[in-house]
């Protein structure tokens, strides 16, 4: 496959694996609202922050939206946007690699970009995500018009490149009905189906479908009057009859002829709103809206330079995520993606290296928790609630020789070991030496006296007793698996083993010694 070359390419290809895994340290004074809302704001360089997230979130993120610096040669008030072209590519490559690892199998990544780098970015993303996973490049119409001073043309759009992690697993996309269409056409209400919201009238007759003689029949009214279609009806005789009896057909007169319409409700029988497909030109959410939203949040003096309008981000999240899904933006700017995800009931992770993580993102998200009414709040009925934790990057998890730092907590080491063994995020329970089951093998960790015995050379040592305790946890968590595979394989990390090599072999146990056998995954 043809690839893009730039000066430091070879080095940049290794950059993501060279970045150390760092701890994330919470700054409690900046966290807000309900601490268990599972929303995370990180201040720091996203290369290190994304790496720190991997053991906990690899393969978990449903939608990534990023709006990286476009390399427009400008110095904005809050960040610089003037990197030498190769440096921009060098900056993007390792970050895209890590973002890909964080994406769920059925997830997607959307990247805002403009003419300065869009074509190079497409080639980079082809290589990182695979050409076959390219979904489309959306045109975002960013302004209504204007540009009287433009020399050659009036630039009205930017692009949003969209790749899936795996096209074969990417689900269909839908959007709720367009509010403009709802206002204009869904004007009627029916007492009988109040829970299905308003309805519009649609003609039952059609002239555009193939000729189907069985769809040509009379609709017989209660007084015996027969109404025939010009060509044919859209529905079968039985369906039309049922709709007529149920009061779902409306008969009116047009130019002296009887016309039959059916009621199309805003919500279907299951109470779900009728949906539409996203179009490749995104309109109606302009830069001006973003600036106005920022001004309302931070005042004229403090507004952020060119934040994205909330409507644009909600369009993307609406099409690609459901309630509770995890959304990530690693170039968070003034916090738009986090604010939108929060209001839409999605979990979110935001990363921003600038001081505006504190001066803009934190106050904005505090306002969101309090129920601020701007942006998409009205359209999603946002009332406030939830919370987030604020983190900064801490020291590396492993020292220069690859040894675990002394004071690493159990869940952090557990997540790293699990990730290095399985390539997956760890979401096991803190407080148990059994980390999880993967590909028919169970994993255990004896560390920090997890079984309640912190004496040196005791609770962190593999003995018959500690092995029994781990096996008991495996059986509790997966009784069916243990019943069907009584001789299952087990990898155990511990300080020492008192079991002989032949006992270990007979019991199907791979013993790995902490800290020596703990390998940092590159
Ligand atoms: C175009 S702005 C994003 C604006 C955002 N979409 C909004 O609506 O406010 C890009 C942001 O990426 C941040 N950024 C650039 N490089 C970064 C890095 N390596 N790590 C974290 N943030 C970075 C900049 O500080 C800037 O705030």
Written account of the structure:
The chain is α/β, with parallel strands linked by helices. It folds into three domains: 9-176 and 276-395, Rossmann fold (3-Layer(aba) Sandwich), CATH 3.40.50; 179-265, no CATH class; 410-513. The chain contains 15 helices and 26 strands. The strands form seven sheets. Strands 1, 2, 3, 4, 7, 8, 9, 17, 18, 19 and 20 form an eleven-stranded mixed sheet that branches. Strand 18 (326-329), helix 9 (336-343) and strand 19 (347-352) form a beta-alpha-beta unit. Helix 1 (9-18) packs parallel to helix 3, helix 3 runs parallel beside helix 4 and helix 8 (310-320) packs across helix 9 (336-343). It is globular and about 95 Å long. The structure holds S-adenosylmethionine. Residues 45-46, 67-69, 78-79, 304, 307-308, 331, 333-334, 336, 351-354 line the site of S-adenosylmethionine.
């Amino acid at each position: 496959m043809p690839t893009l070359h730039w000066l430091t390419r070879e080095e940049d290809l290794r950059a993501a694996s060279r970045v150390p895994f760092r701890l994330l340290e919470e700054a409690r004074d900046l966290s807000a609202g309900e601490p268990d809302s599972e929303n995370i704001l990180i201040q720091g360089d996203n290369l290190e922050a994304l790496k720190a997230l991997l053991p906990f979130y690899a393969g978990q993120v449903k939608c990534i939206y990023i709006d990286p610096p476009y390399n427009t040669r400008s110095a904005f008030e809050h960040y610089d946007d003037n990197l030498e072209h190769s440096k921009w590519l060098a900056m993007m490559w390792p970050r895209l690699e890590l973002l890909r690892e964080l994406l769920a199998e059925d997830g997607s990544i959307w990247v805002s970009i403009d003419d300065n780098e869009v074509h190079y970015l497409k080639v980079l993303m082809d290589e990182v995500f695979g050409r076959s996973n390219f979904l489309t490049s959306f045109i975002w119409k960013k302004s209504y018009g204007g540009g009287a001073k433009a020399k050659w043309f009036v630039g009205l759009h930017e692009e949003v490149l969209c790749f899936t992690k795996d096209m074969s697993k990417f689900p269909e996309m839908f959007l709720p009905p367009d509010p403009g269409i709802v206002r204009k056409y869904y004007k009627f209400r029916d007492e009988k189906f109040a829970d299905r919201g308003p309805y519009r009238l649609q003609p039952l007759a059609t002239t555009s479908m193939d000729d189907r003689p069985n769809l040509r029949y009379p609709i017989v009214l209660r007084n015996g009057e027969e109404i025939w279609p010009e060509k044919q009806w859209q529905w079968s005789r039985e369906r039309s009859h049922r709709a007529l009896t149920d009061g779902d057909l409306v008969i009116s007169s047009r130019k002296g002829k009887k016309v039959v319409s059916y009621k199309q409700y805003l919500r279907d029988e299951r109470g779900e709103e009728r949906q539409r497909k996203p179009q490749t030109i995104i309109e109606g959410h302009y830069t001006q809206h973003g600036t106005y939203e920022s001004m309302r949040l931070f005042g004229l003096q403090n507004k952020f330079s060119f934040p994205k309008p909330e409507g644009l981000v909600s369009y993307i999240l609406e099409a690609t995520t459901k309630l509770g899904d995890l959304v990530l933006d690693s170039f968070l700017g003034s916090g738009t993606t986090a604010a939108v995800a929060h209001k839409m009931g999605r979990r979110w992770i935001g990363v921003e290296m600038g001081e505006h993580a504190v001066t803009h993102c934190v106050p904005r998200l505090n306002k969101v928790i309090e129920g601020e009414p701007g942006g998409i709040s009205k359209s999603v009925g946002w009332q406030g609630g939830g919370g987030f934790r604020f983190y900064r990057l801490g020291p590396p998890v492993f020292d220069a020789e690859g040894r675990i730092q002394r004071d690493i907590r159990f869940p952090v080491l557990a997540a790293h070991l699990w990730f290095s063994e399985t390539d997956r995020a760890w979401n096991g329970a803190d407080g148990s030496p059994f980390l999880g089951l993967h590909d028919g093998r169970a994993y255990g960790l004896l560390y920090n006296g997890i079984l309640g015995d912190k004496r040196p050379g005791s609770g962190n040592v593999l003995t018959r007793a500690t092995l029994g305790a781990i096996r008991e946890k495996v059986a509790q968590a997966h009784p069916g698996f243990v019943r069907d595979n009584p001789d299952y394989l087990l990898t155990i990390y511990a300080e020492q083993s008192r079991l002989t090599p032949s006992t270990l072999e007979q019991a199907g146990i791979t013993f790995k010694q902490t800290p020596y056998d703990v390998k940092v995954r590159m």
